[in-house]
Amino acid sequence: MPRLGILIVSIVFTWSAIKPADRYTWFLEVVPAFTGFFILWYTHHRYKWTPLVLWLMLFEFIILMVGGHYTYAKVPLFDWIGSHLGWERNNYDKFAHFMQGFIPAIFTREMLIRNRVVSGPRWLIFIVSSVCLAFSAFYELVEWWVAVLSGIAAKAFLGTQGYEWDTQSDMFLAWVGSFVALFLLSRIHNRQLKRL
After folding, report:
1. What is the pLDDT of residues 63-116, one digit of tens each?
2. CA distance 131 to 115
3. What is the pTM of this model?
4. What share of the chain is helix, strand, coil (3-state, %, to 5)?
5. Residue 137 CB coordination number (10 Å)
């Protein structure tokens, strides 16, 4: 695992834990990042990932920690961007859901190729995009379960900001993100896979 990446994630984790906007939301957002980071660290010596996958996963952890620190509806950078673009809401959650498809697409692609699950490129695209959409749908179910079980405290975690189609647009953006990742990064990823 890249030492620089570990250092960056450690710094962002420490920063995110200091006076988050909502401690419960921070916990809910950071647990998946911490779990994923631990799994990558623990398996790194037995299963060597491409540098592209490692850096993308580390970036995903940072996205989760920033969202956990501010809550997804109040990330200052996206308030600033929104004020310049005329947005009526903070769209950090939409960026995060796009990345929720973009980043797992390359991770999933690597697992499928290396384990020889799929032989043709069309099936690879179909299965990767389907896995990313399924993961996003499962995450939306988890958000719903958390809201039901914990009540009002989960409002910041859901982050719908009054948008009635929030769940559907979140899943759609993750699905689109998977296609964009496959289109932009497949060649780079193939080169790195050949070096393993």
Report:
1. 999 999 999 889 999 989 999 999 888 899 999 999 999 999 999 999 999 999
2. 16
3. 0.89
4. 80, 0, 20
5. 15
